[in-house]
Amino acid sequence: MTYRVLIVEDNEGKRRALRAVLDSVIECEVAEAPSVTQAFMQLRRQNTDLVLLDMSFQSTRGSSFDIAKEALAGIEVMQYIVGKRHRASVIVVTQHSNFATPEMPEVNTVQELDRLLRDGFPDIYRGVVQVVLAEETWKEELATLIRRCADVGS
């Protein structure tokens, strides 16, 4: 049976880096979605075992097309997975360190994001990795979480 992974990330360079880590850890089929909407379409289209999910996405607001980052937009994907009773595990991969919004000002660190997601999505959430593309340490953190999700040895 083929292990299927969905990368939900709007930054092309980061998508490539995530895919490189995946390819070094596990043999799998990979789909990509650069937006929350496209993630929904991919999840409807096929069964997915693992989602590598960015938490912040660019969006346009109103008719002025102002571009803004939505700090917790990735939560919509997690809500969708739970609502549709998908069995996909989720690893959050983020370059950001603050996720505070007017509705959730307390989510101002990666640790607070981790707590929020562990409490809110205990059945699917497997961890968060803070990605710093110029460094290497995040890659081993991500590889470890992927191995755990896919139940493969090091």
Question: How would you sum up this structure in a few lines?
Answer:
The protein is an alpha/beta fold and 154 residues long. The chain has one domain: 3-Layer(aba) Sandwich (Rossmann fold). It has helices at residues 12-25, 36-45, 74-83, 110-120, 137-150, and strands at residues 4-8, 29-33, 50-53, 57-61, 66-70, 89-94, 125-130.
Structure commentary:
The protein has 154 residues and is α/β, with parallel strands linked by helices. It has a single domain, classed as 3-Layer(aba) Sandwich (Rossmann fold), CATH 3.40.50.2300. Helix content is 38%, strand content 23%. It is built from five helices and seven strands. Strands 2-1-3-6-7 form a five-stranded parallel β-sheet, with helices on both faces. A two-stranded antiparallel sheet has the order 4-5. Strand 6 (89-94), helix 4 (110-120) and strand 7 form a beta-alpha-beta unit. Helix 1 packs across helix 5 (137-150) and helix 2 (36-45) packs parallel to helix 3. The chain is globular and about 45 Å long. It starts with a strand and ends with a helix.
